[in-house]
Amino acid sequence: MENLCLKIMNKNMEALAVARGEDEVNLVYAGEYQDGDIIILEVSEGSHYVWLQWDDAVGRSLVYVTGNVTYRIPFGDRRINLSPRAFLGRKHLLSAKLAKDFEIKYYRNMAYNVCDQHEIEHLYPHATANVETRGEAVFAAQNAIDGITVSNCHGEWPYQSWGINRQEDARIRIDFGREILADTVVIYLRTDFPHDNWWQQVSLEFSDGSRMDVAMQRKEGSQKIAIGQKKISWLEMCDMKKSSEASPFPALTQMEVYGTESVDKEK
After folding, report:
1. Annotated domain spans of the chain
2. Could you say which of 81, 139, 203, 240 has the lowest number of CB atoms within 10 Å?
3. Per-residue pLDDT tens for 124-173?
4. Distance between CA 11 and CA 159 in Å, rounded?
């Protein structure tokens, strides 16, 4: 039975390349992408844990897939939050592989996903926000879960971040698509001082109805927050209170959420 299928389609929905497999599929595309091209991951009925790679220059993530997924290949300003090698050239390697039980069950950063995109559906974890500075890719919510923790500058890759456009009620949300067991949140504030400000306090709200107010530090690097053991399907960071420093630009470089699956899942 073929559980996985990868397709590259042009803007007219004509197939440029297709590969199918039972538990694993690799698609090598020898061609240059054009604006309007998309990648489609098709999966068999049900939910699946998949090692997914849209592009060899971006890498892969263990993602939770609940249906067919469409990824729009970014061009121009929509791709400057990615490696300059991503999606360029005349040879590309895409892959999807069903995860093994031990890979699914191990303790890990449950928020990490290099395959995320603004409008994507059926693919988790997924980051969204009520504001992204000027709608620019370098300030998109997805940047906060891409695994890159370089925080001492802002702008093009590898300095992408989640930017709030000075909005006082800004909030960012990470959806997991199912319940997980989480015990630790790790936050990397952007630290491009003196351009940046920083948040002295942030609040974390969870799908179980709980909330935590957390004091932050003015420092580069990780800030670890123990949250107990929570069974959650999403969390939000909100009610951020910036310092009295002159800059109006606090921002988030990365958020990690450590834990495990809440129950044993079938592949």
Report:
1. 4-99, 123-261
2. 203
3. 999 999 999 999 999 999 999 999 999 999 999 999 999 999 999 999 99
4. 31
Cα 181 from chain centre: 19
CATH C-level class of 123-261: mainly beta
Measured distance CA(113)–CA(128) in Å, rounded: 13
Half-sphere exposure in the Cβ direction for 57 (13 Å, CA)? 13
In this structure, what token pair is assigned to residue 190?
A: 């952007």
DSSP state of 60: E
d(CA 139, CA 149): 14
Q: Are 253 and 150 in contact (CB under 8 A)?
A: yes
Q: Which residues pair with 27 in a beta bridge?
A: 94
| Tokens 């990780």 -> residue | 222
Measured in degrees and rounded to the nearest 5, phi and psi for residue 56 equal -70, -20
Say how many C-beta atoms besides its own lie within 10 A of residue 131's C-beta.
19
3-state secondary structure of 103: helix
